[in-house]
Amino acid sequence: MASLFTPPPLPARLLLFPATTSSSPAALRCLLPPRSCHAREVLDVMPQRNGGGAAASGTNGAAVRVGVAREAGTAPRQGRSRHGGARRWRRGDDKGKLARGERAADGEVQGKGWSGEGELKGRREGKRWTRGETRVRESGKAENFARGESKSSGDAMKKGKKKVKGSENGGKLRVELDMCSKRGDVMGAISLYDSAVKEGIRMGQHHYSVLLYLCSSAALGFVQPAKSGNAGSGIASIGPACKLNLLATESMGSFEEEDVPEDHVEDQEGNKTDLFASDNVTEQTSSVPVSDELREYARTRGFEIFDKMCSEKEKVLMSEAALTAVARMAMSMGNGDMAFDIVKQMKDQGIAPKLRSYGPALTAFCNSGNVEKAFEVEAHMMESGVTPEEPELETLLRASVITRQGDRVYYLLHKFRTTVRQVSPSTAKLFEEWFRSSTASKVGKRKWDAGAMIKAIENNGGGWHGLGWLGRGKWTISHSHIDRNGVCLACGEKLAIIDLDPKETEDFARLVAKLAIKRERRSNFENFQKWLEKHGPFEAVVDGANVGLFSHKHLSLSKINVVADVIRQRLPSRKLPLIVVHNRHLTGERIKKPSNYKLVEKWKQSSTIYATPTGSNDDWYWLYAAIRCKCLIITNDEMRDHTFQLLERDFFPKWKERHQVRFTFEDSCVTLQMPPPCSVVIQESEKGQWHIPVSEEGLLERDRTWLCVKRSN
Predict the structure, then answer these.
(1) What is the DSSP string of 555-600?
(2) Which range among 168-177, 206-215, 301-310, 328-337 shows the weakest confidence by mean pLDDT?
(3) Which of 270, 539, 658, 670 has the largest CB neighbor count within 10 A?
(4) Closest to 220 (Cα-Cα) out of 274, 273, 290
(5) In whole angstroms, what is the distance from residue 437 CA to residue 316 CA?
(6) Which CA distances in Å does 296 have to 450, 526, 668, 691, 703?
(7) What 3-state class would DSSP assign to 691?
């Protein structure tokens, strides 16, 4: 197994920077390549206060102009004649300066706003206050009242000015830290932190989250320039420097993405873990390696920053992002217990842990070969309602394969079956390595009750029994395909079709109706339910918005009609399917076109079209109709948005696989891709054979690769 666990080679472009003997921040900063700083460009157009560099001119507007001129290395432009020389003073120049809020030549006027009206307004307010103060004195009531109120008012104004100044400084610091985060400039962020502490700038949750994120990323060994977010998955949120070394001679290389605070998170689809050497150099070179000295420095400063965040003086509200960053720093030291304790303490502080929160502890325990503790983390995830995804399961699988724990591998096979269903190529390679190992050939029952196995499979709905390894001896592994009848071309076994049973279907329909009524107008969806009971059932439902998509605002009713006619030819009753479309597509000038009008009238007369009302989400309507009628749904919608994420993970994938029909248009002809002849999910037979589907994007189902695994004897 040495070939499997050899760490992937570092690309030539990813050369570590040489270490330095100096540990000062200035020296450590030289270890990272210089990057252009765009923070100055942002700050130059922000309002500045008096006394701040270029803002010393007294106004924000003038400060911007003067600041930009000096940035370019030129003197501020003065009044000039058309010949280029300094022109003479003219009447009204001082008024012009006052109108712009600039300082007059003699220094008597100091503009404090964007125009000279602020100074005049202040004088008027002061004059009114003087008159009020005189009235109090003349009335003979509490002579000190006016003085005391004037003093308290002045104190309040000073406090207000300090608060505004602190808020402005905090805002500027936030912008600069965000720019450091996007550049992966950890030393720049630490320098900003030191300056903020020295100047007494109060920092908030976001400031600390960005600082801890950068320090934890550097502590793991890699920073990513121009990086502003990722998918935020658990193991996938850990930097690529953290290779999963279980033994001195065996490593579990992991090129994954680093994490960011929640404020930076952006969706980036397809960022999955690859524990094998990748040929995609571009993907790996997005990270910049950090020297060991800088890693240690960043980790030390990170814990220092966290201590300040937790101090009584700061009183900053703790966040999941900050605690996860600390757990990452603990993982960089190989301290899995500390990383796990941090996750446990989140609940005590009223913070719900996320999938990424468990990544550091899980990785650290797998690094040290402590598989028992790693599965304790997995159990804690399940108790917290956090479901591990393929990167987490793959990490556990690799650790279990290396430590040769057959029971753990069997458990994970079924975890993959229920959670992932289809495995990635890297996970498939891990399973191949397991089945080829000598340990795998020695685990399993020599005798078993075949009838009990068949009954267990029936009780589970088909496709698995879950009673452990069967048989002994070497395994043979074939890369196979499944024919149109659902038969494996390697072993000849007919794979199972796993669908929802009647009770599960009723429960699923009830769940969808409950969610739809909660998010739609109750009367709208209830009216649809009554209409469906009256005119149904249907053998197929067409997602009109997806099938007839013509442009952002318009649908092609002729495309919908073509698909409806083709699917009708495949239905036993030859009846038209139900077409669900939003009512806005059935109004306006386009519907007055004779051909469109004729189609709509045909569908209305046959009661095979339902127009969802204004303000409704038509996804709920066609989804409920397909579930309730136990029929096919014609759509290319991958059903991954927030609407479908509300559904049960166990029900929805099984239902979608057995009922979704996809389509393609070529030269005005439509091709339908019917549901596969068997369930595309890991399957276990009553004889102990395994069929594992490999996830491959963009391929037809008949071209999908399956691992066919059976005993040689």
Answers:
(1) B-HHHHHHHHHHHHHHSTT-PPPEEEEEGGGGSSTGGGSHHHHHHH
(2) 168-177
(3) 539
(4) 290
(5) 52
(6) 59, 62, 63, 46, 49
(7) strand
pTM of the model: 0.66
Strand partners, 671: 664
Q: Annotate 99-118 with DSSP letters as a single string.
A: HHTPPPTTS-----SSSTHH
For 195-231, b/e burial (b = at least 16 CB within 10 A) is ebeeeebebebbbbbbbbbbbbbbbbbbbbeebebbb
Please compute the mean of the pLDDT values over residues 402-426 and round it to a whole number: 94
Q: Locate 643 and state its tokens.
A: 């609407």
Beta bridge partners of 665: 670
Which amino acid type is present at position 542?
V
pLDDT tens column, 18-60: 333 333 334 333 333 333 333 333 323 233 333 333 333 333 3
Strand partners, 664: 671
Q: How confident is residue 239, by pLDDT bands cut at 50, 70 and 90?
A: low
697 φ, ψ (degrees, to nearest 5): -75, 145
Residue with tokens 């399957």: 683
The answer to whether 64 touches 101, Cβ cutoff 8 Å, is no
Tokens encoding 99: 């109108």
CB 644 within 8 A of CB 516: no
Please tell me the predicted confidence (pLDDT) of residue 669. Answer: 84
The mean of the pLDDT values for the chain is: 74
CA distance 52 to 192: 16
Q: Which of 98-107, 354-363, 425-434, 638-647 has the lowest mean pLDDT?
A: 98-107
d(CA 261, CA 321): 5
The Cα 130–Cα 145 span in angstroms is: 13
Query: What tokens appear for 317 in the block?
Result: 């509200």
Burial class of residue 644 in the structure, from the number of CB atoms within 10 Å of its CB (0-12 exposed, 13-18 middle, 19+ buried)? middle
C-alpha pair distances (Å), 341 with each of 327, 347, 371: 9, 11, 17
Of 225, 335, 273, 329, give the one whose Cα is nearest residue 8.
Answer: 273
Closest CA to 354 of 379, 323, 329, 326: 323
Distance CA 553, CA 547 (A): 14
344 CA to centre of own chain: 23
Residue 624: the pLDDT is 95
Q: Which residue has the higher pLDDT, 158 or 489?
A: 489
